[in-house]
Amino acid sequence: MVLSDAVAEVWAPIFSGLAFSTILVVGWGGIARWAEGAPAWARGALWGLLATATCLVAMVSAQELTPGFKFDLRHSFLAVAAYFGGPVTALVAAFGTALVRAAL
Q1: pLDDT at 71 over 80
Q2: How would you class 94 by CB atoms within 10 Å of its CB: exposed for 0-12, middle for 13-18, buried for 19 or more?
Q3: Tally of CB atoms within 10 A around 9
Q4: The predicted structure's pLDDT at residue 12
Q5: Does residue 51 contact residue 25 with C-beta atoms inside 8 Å?
Q6: In DSSP terms, which residues pair with 64 in a beta bridge?
Q7: What value does the mean pLDDT take over residues 84-89?
Q8: Three-class SS of 11-70
Q9: How far apart are CA 46 and CA 81, in angstroms?
Q10: pTM
Q11: What's the CA gap between 12 and 88, in Å, rounded?
């Protein structure tokens, strides 16, 4: 294996995680404007669904660093969603991500 291939294998999941983070932020910006007049619990549920979708994409595209060890950034997406969205968002995102993980 050439050194550049080894470096690409390590950095690929990090860059894909940054791309998913960007999608999450842009998606939240669109949802926030669209759901401006909605109640807080509805906005939290929408944010939780978006975070669940982002976690799903992160889990499906996980990188296997060593045999049996997969790396993804779903935990960081859940933490960001809970911090910025509040308890309703945290519950929706955690429950949705747990269901998706159980299905995989």
Answers
A1: no
A2: middle
A3: 13
A4: 74
A5: no
A6: 70
A7: 88
A8: HHHHHHHHHHHHHHHHHHHHHHHHCCCCCHHHHHHHHHHHHHHHHHHHHHCCEEEECCEE
A9: 11
A10: 0.71
A11: 32
